[in-house]
Amino acid sequence: MTIRYDGRVAVITGAGNGLGRSHALLLAARGARVVVNDLGGSVAGRGGSHSAADAVVAEIRAAGGEAVANYDSVATPEGGEAIIQSACDAFGKVDILINNAGNNIQNSFRKMSIEDFKAVVDVHLMGAVYCTKAAWQGMLDQQYGRVVMTTSAAGLFGGHGLGNYAAAKIALVGLMNSLKLEGRNRNVTVNCVAPMATTRMSEEAMDDKTGPLLQPEFVSSLVGLLCAEDHTGSGDIISTGAGYYAKIGILEGAGVCLGTQAAPDPETLAGHWAEICDLSEAQPFDDAFSAVAHSMRKVLRGLKAQG
Length: 307
Ligand code: NAI
What we know:
Helix 1 packs across helix 7, helix 3 (77-91) runs parallel beside helix 4 and helix 4 (114-142) packs parallel to helix 6 (163-183). The chain is globular, with a radius of gyration of 21 Å. The termini are far apart. The chain contains ten helices and eight strands. The protein has two domains: 9-248, NAD(P)-binding Rossmann-like Domain (Rossmann fold); 266-306, no CATH class. Strands 3-2-1-4-5-6-7-8 form an eight-stranded mixed β-sheet, sandwiched between helices. By secondary structure, the protein is an alpha/beta fold. 42% of the residues are buried. The structure holds 1,4-dihydronicotinamide adenine dinucleotide. 1,4-dihydronicotinamide adenine dinucleotide (NAI) is lined by residues 13-14, 16-20, 37-41, 43, 45, 52, 73-75, 100-103, 123-124, 127, 150, 152, 195-197, 199-202.
C-alpha cells in the first residue's frame, strides 16, 4: 500500500518551522496541495514575518510540489477563517487540517500572568478551534476530512512551569473526543499526536544523547498515516518520537460500588482507596454516555444483588 494525497488539499498551521514544516514537506511530496500557514514569530509567538512560511513554500515548489503561503495568526476567529479561506481560494477545498501551530511561554503558575496564560491557550486551543470550525462544515458536506490535533506529554501527564501549555494541550483531547463523534458518519476523522522532536521550541530541553535522534520526520510519518484516505481510525492519541509510536489511553478502572442507601463517609472511602485507584482492569470508552452507562449498570447490578 502506497499512501498518497493526490487531489487532496492540506492546511498545516505553524508550518514555517519544526514539525509543521516537516509535515508539509511529507504531504506535498506525496501529492497534496498544501497551505503553509505561519505567523513567523518568536517561540513565545510574538512578532511576525513572512519568511518562515515563504521558505517552506519555496522548498515544496523546488521539489515539484504545490503550495501557497498564509501568514495569518491562528489565534483569532478571523485568522482561522482566513487560513481556511486561503486554501479554498487557491485549491477549492480543505481535506486535511493539521493543527500544529504553537507558542510557549513558561513560568511557574505562581509567577505566570493571566496574559501569558491566555496567550498560550489562544494559540494552541483556540487556534485549533478557529481553524477546525472554519473547515468543519466543508468537511462534513464533502463527506471527507482528516483532522490532526497536536497535543503533548505535558498536557497528558503534566509539566512544571507549563500550566498554560498543558491546560491547552489536554483540552485538545476533549475537543477531539467530541468531534470524532460528530464527524463519524461523514468520513471525517480527528486524531491527536503527542510528539517529541528537536525543534526551536524544544531544543533547550533536549540532551546530547536523545536530541539528535528526535528528528521531526519521525512524527510526520505518523501524521501522514493519520491523514491517509484508508486510515479511518478516529479518536486516537498517539505518542511518538525517534521511531517510537504508542497509543495513549484515557481509561476508567473497575471501581467499587459502596451501596446506594447512604453516601459513604470520607473515612469509608479512605478504606477503599486502593480499590478505587486500581487500574488493573481499566478500560476505555467510546463516549461519555458509554462510560456513565457502564458505571450505572454496575450500580444497578449491586442493587439487584442486595435484593
Ligand atoms: P516550532 O516553534 O518550531 O514551530 C511552531 C510554529 O508555529 C512556528 O513556526 C511558529 O511561528 C508558529 N506559530 C506560533 N504561533 C502561531 C500563530 N498564532 N499562528 C500561526 N503560526 C504560529 O515548534 P514545534 O516543536 O515544531 O511545535 C509544533 C507543535 O508541536 C506545537 O503545537 C507544539 O506545542 C507541539 N509539540 C512539540 C513538541 C516537541 O518536542 N517539539 C512536544 C509536544 C508538542
